[in-house]
Design a protein that fits this description.
The protein is an alpha+beta fold. It contains 41 helices and 16 strands. One of its GO terms (molecular function) is [protein-PII] uridylyltransferase activity.
């Protein structure tokens, strides 16, 4: 026998009818209740209870193990859920039987001493996940009796002692009906009521009265409540079905959405099977098959997830996705990991659930059950429908402010209408009628090579993409209907594709659509406060259309084995002429896609105070128009990654890079000599410090090296001068100053201290111990041996008062660390525990040394798996290697850290020796592994 359960048990007829496996383990069993009955002779009630409990624990343990093994073998999630429910039915029935026969037998039961055990809610559907709650309703004919109270208590305590989570209620018939009328949650749970054990007549009375006294005449009320409940649930879960850590049960496109459809169907159409949905005209046979396929997949994922985690976990967190992919049998393909293929399948199923919801709601409207959109609820669906024509089109009409087909054959007659309907909806600001969208999804086969090459179809699509209305909304509907991926096959390849990392919050297609939305908002002036430079630049861009196409396609080659920027540019060169772009426009789009990461990476990980950085960037960009377009595209791209990814500090870096590059592209002051620029910077500061005595000004002017004068802005020069002057007057050589920058979302901490080779490392360690996340650092040495290091940490609090309090604590800890009153290794160890999610990822460690990025420094780019304390270990290793750090730039992309250091050797020269480079790579790799070398004593860093 395949079962891991004991033989000799039977199953209730209702449970057996719900099962689909011909080889189900439970069908091989005789009565569990009879087996427990055999334990009774010779035992008192207490001993019998203990024996029954031990036996049932073994039954549950073996039954669940068998169900999990079968799930892994056949992958049938719905069957697994039904098997677990049937197993639970038998256990509850056996407990109830022991209670009424051996523990609390009623010799001459009265009419009141009757009871029906009823499964409600999810358990009532006859499907359970391994960690699901057991929802029970104890139905009484009248008020509770001592006998009934004792039986209920025995059953519940036995279930609790078995380790089960039980949701329960004990009510008489009148209470069930009264509460169902007033509470929609209770009404829904009883809607799915299923008889288990006890007095079946009571259960029949409940269902009869529920149908006649609660359900009858309240269909629209129930539907409106369930759809509102669904919308609120979606809002709580994040609104999008394309979140990369989805909730399998509650998320958009999850099991609860399918349950909602079935609740409505059962309540309004009085159907209990999928076939009845077809008979009611709500689904076609193929759509019913899709419903069942989606349901089985989601149940499979949910059951695997519970088995894997050992708890009722409903969210597919990163740390379980890879193992889930393995359990479900996915393998890696070129360009896509096994986990990415699994999650793509998940999101495609979630999309199918959305399609089914749309089709179902269209049927409800035909039955006048679902209210019309908010603006139109004053209309009476029973009266003649209000139609009007759309200017310039005879194929579409407006029906209650929603675009609909003039007749059912509009798409078959002219497939261009599959694009035109979206263009007209955008142009006329119309929502979509469910009937039209249902017909669109059923006409996708009409989108072929001929339609893709049709000039009119491409013109309409291009106008829609660059619309000045709200292209994001319409393009998302176009994607959800399946039109977008078929019309633009390159886009179709990234539909539902996720990237297995902590940086991206959405699937690739959702990110691309959101980025178009952000661009449209910038274009309309709706993000001027958040992106002031983009707001100024956007109106001056000469070719909006090329920018929108580049935005739409910039990540379209994700998931391919080669670099997605290069592959995406190649795809754009093929697609541009088809869309109707000129050769010049096509080349602009291809260039923007190929370099869409350039500005972001340069701004965040290069030294913007180094002239070579600006010159190299300008040499790639070459024109002011490209610079403008690249700036806006970069801002929209970062903003659309997900909530909290964009911040003011990134905006400030991009603005700095833009303003530094602009003069080089317009023939500005780029030819001014270095000495002239140093002199001008000194004069500017002297002019700002007019209240200083002349002798102090002359002395201060000589305290900084040229690099300081060129790379620090005037406000910081003034603040540094005040800090140094106050320290001089008080005879201190160690001081800190803090300032908050709300718009940039960073806090600045300046440290004045005697120069020391480990200074930056100690500052980084103190920040780690204090919970501060360093995003950038400027490092300078004065001519008299002091270091003035400025670090920028990510802002944590909304108010300046709270943030200033926090910053002062960080500054104080830095001072304690530098003065030796705090032991950094111990303080860091308390904070440097890897985040749980980080453990799910493997990131290749890469150490790059490049002498072409700067005329003065060697640039070291160290990238790999991020962790608390990493910057401390990297900077300590660089000090051990006798390298002087001139600047540090810290970037994180989810779990991946990219830290760039500009360094010289002890003589102030670049690192040019191959053996030395190999040693640096080896030691920094060790730092990523959390094993920095033993301290050495390098010389101090140079100015």
């Amino acid at each position: 026998m395949k079962s891991g359960l004991r033989s000799g048990h039977t199953v209730t007829p209702k449970a057996a009818a719900s099962m689909t496996r011909s080889d189900s383990t439970l069908l091989d069993r005789s009565s569990l209740a009879a087996e427990l009955h055999a334990l009774a002779p010779g035992r008192d009630k207490s001993a019998l209870r203990s024996a029954v409990l031990a036996h049932l624990k073994q039954v549950l343990r073996e039954g669940r193990a068998s169900a999990e093994a079968q799930l892994i073998a056949d992958g049938l999630g719905s069957a697994c859920a039904r098997t677990l429910s049937a197993l639970q039915d038998e256990v509850i029935g056996a407990i109830y039987t022991v209670a009424i026969r051996h523990i609390y037998p009623a010799e001459n039961p009265t009419a009141a001493e009757r009871m029906a055990l009823v499964a409600v809610g999810g358990y009532g559907r006859g499907m359970l996940a391994p960690g699901s709650d057991i929802d029970l309703l104890f139905v009484l004919p009248y008020k509770q009796t001592p006998w009934g109270e004792s039986v209920v208590e025995f059953v519940l305590y036995m279930l609790w002692d078995l380790g089960l989570k039980v949701g329960h209620a004990t009510r008489n018939l009148d209470e069930c009906i009264r509460l169902s009328r007033s509470d929609m949650t209770i009404r829904t749970s009883i809607l799915e009521a299923r008889y288990l054990w006890g007095d079946e007549g009571l259960f029949n009375d409940l269902t009869r009265r529920f149908d006649t006294e609660v359900v009858k005449g309240t269909g629209p009320e129930f539907i409106a409540a369930k759809l509102a409940e669904r919308d609120e649930r979606h809002r709580r879960q994040g609104a999008s079905r394309y979140l990369v850590e989805p909730n399998v049960k509650e998320g958009k496109g999850g099991l609860r959405d399918l349950h909602t459809l079935f609740w409505i169907a059962k309540y309004f159409y009085h159907v209990g099977t999928g076939d009845a949905l077809v008979e009611a005209g709500l689904f076609s046979r193929s759509e019913l098959a899709l419903f069942r396929k989606a349901e089985d997949f989601l149940w499979s994922v949910r059951c695997h997830l519970h088995f894997l985690t050992g708890r009722p976990e409903e969210r597919l967190f990163f740390d379980v996705q890879r193992e889930m992919a393995v359990r479900l049998g996915y393998t890696s393909h070129p360009g896509l990991k096994d986990v990415e293929r699994f999650m793509k399948h998940y999101f495609l199923v979630a999309k199918d659930v959305g399609d089914l919801t749309m089709i179902f709601c269209a049927g409800l409207e035909e039955e006048n059950a679902k209210p019309a959109p908010l603006l139109n609820r004053f209309f009476n669906f029973g009266s003649r429908r209000r139609h009007r024509k759309i200017t310039g089109s005879s194929d579409f009409i407006v029906e209650h402010d929603r675009i609909n087909m003039a007749d059912p054959d509009v798409f078959r007659r002219d497939p261009v209408n599959l694009i035109r309907i979206f263009h007209l909806a955008d142009k006329n600001n119309l929502a979509f009628h469910p009937d039209a969208m249902k017909q669109v999804t059923r006409s996708l086969k009409l989108i072929d090579g001929k339609l893709r090459d049709d000039p009119e179809a491409n013109r309409l699509f291009l106008e829609l993409l660059a619309s000045r209305n709200q292209p994001e909304t319409v393009i998302r509907r176009m994607n959800e209907a399946g039109v977008l991926g078929r019309f633009v096959p390159d886009f179709g390849k990234v539909v539902a594709m996720m990237q297995f990392n902590m940086y991206h919050h959405y699937t690739v297609d959702e990110h691309l659509i959101r980025s178009v939305g952000v661009l449209a908002e910038i274009d309309a002036g709706g993000r001027s406060e958040e992106h002031p430079l983009a707001d100024l630049v956007m109106p001056t861009i000469q070719d909006r259309t090329a920018l929108y196409v580049a935005m739409f396609l910039h990540d379209v080659a994700k998931g391919r084995p080669e670099d997605h920027s290069i592959a995406g540019a190649r795809a754009a060169r093929k697609l541009g002429p088809r869309l109707g772009l000129t050769p010049a426009q096509t080349e602009t789009v291809a260039w923007l896609i190929e370099h869409h990461l350039l500005m972001s990476m340069t701004a965040q990980s290069r030294d913007l105070g180094d002239r070579k950085t600006i010159q190299d960037f300008a040499a790639v960009v070459q024109s002011l128009e490209r610079l403008k377009m690249l700036l806006v595209l970069t801002i929209a791209d970062i903003t659309a990654v997900g909530p909290g990814v964009w911040n003011g500090w990134k905006g400030q870096l991009l603005r700095t890079l833009y303003y530094e590059t602009e003069p080089l592209l317009t023939g500005g002051h780029s030819q001014v000599s270095r000495d002239q620029r140093v002199g001008a910077a000194k004069a500017e500061l002297i002019d700002a410090l007019k209240d200083w005595p002349q002798a102090d000004l002359d002395a201060y002017r000589d305290r900084h090296y040229p690099a300081y004068w060129l790379r620090v802005d005037l406000p910081r020069k003034i603040a540094h001068a005040s800090l140094i002057r106050n320290a001089d007057r008080s005879g201190q050589t160690l001081a800190t100053a803090v300032s908050t920058h709300a718009f940039e979302a960073i806090t600045e901490i300046t440290v004045l201290a005697p120069d020391h080779p480990r200074l930056l490392s100690m500052i980084a360690g103190a920040c780690t111990a204090a919970g501060g996340n360093i995003v950038d650092a400027q490092i300078f040495t004065t001519t008299d041996g002091l270091a003035i290091d400025t670090i920028f940490i990510a802002r944590e609090f909304d108010t300046d008062e709270e943030e200033m309090t926090r910053a002062l604590k960080v500054g104080s800890l830095i001072e304690q660390a530098l003065s030796g009153t705090v032991a950094l290794p111990e303080a860091i160890a308390k904070k440097a525990k890897p985040r749980a999610k980080i453990k799910a990822f493997t990131v290749e460690t890469r150490i790059l040394l490049d002498n072409s990025w700067s005329n003065q420094f060697t640039a070291i780019e160290a990238s790999g798996l991020d962790r608390p304390g990493l910057l401390y270990d990297l900077t300590r290793s660089l000090s051990d290697l006798n390298l002087n750090i001139a600047s540090a730039h810290v970037v994180t992309f989810g779990e991946r850290a990219v830290d760039v250091f500009y360094v010289t050797d002890l003589t102030g020269r670049k690192v040019m020796n191959a053996n030395r480079e190999a040693s640096i790579r080896r030691r920094l790799r060790q730092a990523f592994e959390g094993a920095p070398p033993v301290d050495k004593t390098p010389a101090r860093k140079a100015g």
